[in-house]
Fold this sequence. Notes:
By secondary structure, the chain is α+β, with helices and mostly antiparallel strands. Helix content is 45%, strand content 18%. A hairpin with a 4-residue loop joins strand 1 and strand 2 (35-38). The longest helix is centred in the first third of the chain and has 18 residues, at 3-20. The radius of gyration is 17 Å and the shape is globular.
Amino acid sequence: MSERIRCLELQLAKCDLLLDQHTAPLWLIDGESRVVYCNQAATQCMKQSGFVLHETFGRLHCTHHEADLHARVRQASGTCGPQRAGGLRLPGPQAGDLLITLVPAEAPFNRHFQKPLALLALLDNQPQSHLLADIFHLSPAEQRLAELLAQQLSPERCATILGVSINTVRTQLRALFRKTGTNRQAELGSLIGRLSQ
Length: 197
């Protein structure tokens, strides 16, 4: 076995460990909804009778909203225009919000696939703010700002609370837009709010 293959396998094992740490069900999929990876929580969900998401022939499907799921995945992965995060409300006994977001190129679990990917996270109304930094690869300062913006605070108010200049907040806000695939503060606040409930 070559050193390069051994190194890649070790890095993929680290990717598994990173995603499996989360209690939220997570799927890593490409623009054609092919499942690249799903963590243990996602695997357990798909084993439940009546769960709306399922994998068939390597692709993720949704019993309800199939077309919406695939459209949002293409949008988040950037296969049909600029990357843009979205969400989908899943019905049924395991109802929850399915966050569908781009995977930043610098994210540890995207470095080896070399293709546009989307991350799906099933949020079950439990506090999920710990996912912010991992999903969007945010710095601690960006995460604190995002959590304040989710409370619909103005950038000026955020600067006061954080004890930084408004220019620092604006710089971090631009980074948040880039990393989350959003364009406006309201859109960012809505997206982050789903994770910070």
